[in-house]
Each structure stands twice: as structure tokens, then as C-alpha cells.
Amino acid sequence: MPTIHGRFDVKRTPQGALDIGGDAKAMHLRFDKTFEGPLQATSVVHMMALGTVVEGSAGYVAIERLDGGVEGRTGRFAMMHFGVMDRGSPSLRLEVLPDSGEGDLTGLRGSMKIDITDGAHFYTLDYTLPDA
């Protein structure tokens, strides 16, 4: 399975609080990203996040639509995010949405990891593509 690494920039735009009742705080956020390196793409992410009354515990789900190229193959694809913060201990799962690839990215499968170092965002994408 090929693995690629690079950097991305992200702009966060709050879309407003969500009324779900109770003491938990929920919100909708939009992120606009620009990826550099072997993944040359822009994306839009819509995230729903919930913070609990327990300090350090929260979660989010998101859909991300990427438009660009993976190692020169161009098209579009979508990713699902599932993030949990359990009393300060984070876990994050990002998966390519099956059969979401279009253009040269038709058949794309894989998962992504995100690392944030000194405020800079980095990705690692493990993927498969037909004939890749």
C-alpha cells in the first residue's frame, strides 16, 4: 500500500452552536484546507462537535470533500472523520469513503493520519488505487 506524506494549511470557520439540550456544548464548524506534497488538493470539511461537562472529553464527526490529485492522478474523493477525546486522551480515525473517488481517483481506498507539530499540520495518507 503506497504511503505519502505532506503538509496542509487549514482555516476554521465556526458555523454556530447547536441546540441539543442538556449541559453538553455542540457546534458546527467548517474547515477549508489546502494540501501540499504528493496530495495536491483543496478540501471543505463540515464537522459536528460535542464537548461534555467532563474536562477533556469530547467528540466529533465530519465529512470532508477533497478536490485535486494524488501523485499526479486527479479527481475528487470524500473522507469520514471520527474523533474522540477521552479525558485528554485523543483518538482519531479518518477513512476514505468507499466508492467516493471520481476521475483518476475512482476506486481510491485508504486512511489518513494527521499530526500537528508546533502549529503546523501534516498528513500521512495510506492508499490503494487500481493500477497504482
Mean pLDDT: 95
Residue share in β-strands: over 45%
Number of domains: 1
CATH homolog superfamily: SO1590-like
CATH architecture: Beta Barrel
What can you tell me about this protein's structure?
The protein has 132 residues and is an all-beta fold. It has a single domain, classed as AOC barrel-like, CATH 2.40.350.10. It has no helices and nine strands. Strands 1-2-3-4-5-6-8-9 form an eight-stranded antiparallel beta barrel. The radius of gyration is 16 Å and the shape is elongated.
Topology of helices and strands:
Layout: E1 3-18, E2 25-35, E3 39-51, E4 58-70, E5 73-86, E6 89-96, E7 102-103, E8 109-117, E9 120-128
Antiparallel strand pairs: 1-2, 1-9, 2-3, 3-4, 4-5, 5-6, 5-7, 6-8, 8-9
Feature tags:
132 residues, mainly beta, AOC barrel-like, eight-stranded antiparallel barrel, 9 strands, elongated
Gist?
0% of the residues lie in helices and 72% in strands. It has 132 residues and is mostly beta strands.
